[in-house]
Amino acid sequence: MTLESAASDVPDMADPMYLLDAVFRLERAVTRIGNKRLANWHMSLSGYAAMKTLENRPNLSLAQLSRRCFVRPQTMTRLVAQLEERDFVQRSPHPESERAISLSLTESGRAALNDMDAEVLKINETLTEQLDDSGVTVLEQSLRKCALAVETELRALS
């Protein structure tokens, strides 16, 4: 499929669902290509995202990690168990709570994440090639602003 034919699949902008359709389509495409790019590590994009989050924010609890990755705690429990089995993540007592468990990457987890980063970066390159520098900046800021608005609305509904 060419970019021109893909563009013809876009709903009419008068349709109030056109933006949601574009977001859903991009999310599904990014997930699929991410899972394909990470197949050599038997890793999903969700697993990679959890590991990347722990790289940037070590010592999160399971609940904190699930919130940051926007998945249910049950899903994160299963995902962390799989990462533990592969010696990518370890549990230890949380430094700020006697009841919570802290999650962090192991050395082998850091090494695997470092290897996976190059494949995930290719997805980012594909996205940024579609825009000029100012377009990338505007899109990133707009997406973050929209995400924050939806997250705020979600908290209000909870």
Question: Can you put this structure into words, describing what you see?
Answer:
Helix content is 66%, strand content 6%. The chain has 158 residues and is mostly helical. Strands 1-2 form a two-stranded antiparallel ribbon. The relative contact order is 0.09.
Label this structure with key terms.
mainly alpha, 66% helix, globular
- How many extended strands? 2
Order of helices and strands: HHHHHEEHH
Provide mean pLDDT, rounded.
89
**Helix fraction?**
55-70%
The outline comes out as globular
Radius of gyration: 18 Å
Low-confidence spans: none
Structural class per helix/strand content? mainly alpha
Strand order of the largest sheet: 1-2
Question: How many helices?
Answer: 7
Cα distance, first to last residue?
Answer: 41 Å
How much strand? Answer: 5-15%
Biggest sheet character? 2 strands, antiparallel
Provide a compact summary of the structure.
By secondary structure, the chain is mainly alpha-helical.
Topology:
Blueprint: H1 3-8, H2 18-37, H3 45-56, H4 62-68, H5 73-85, E1 89-93, E2 101-105, H6 107-128, H7 133-157
Antiparallel strand pairs: 1-2
Helix pairs in contact: 2-6, 3-6, 4-5
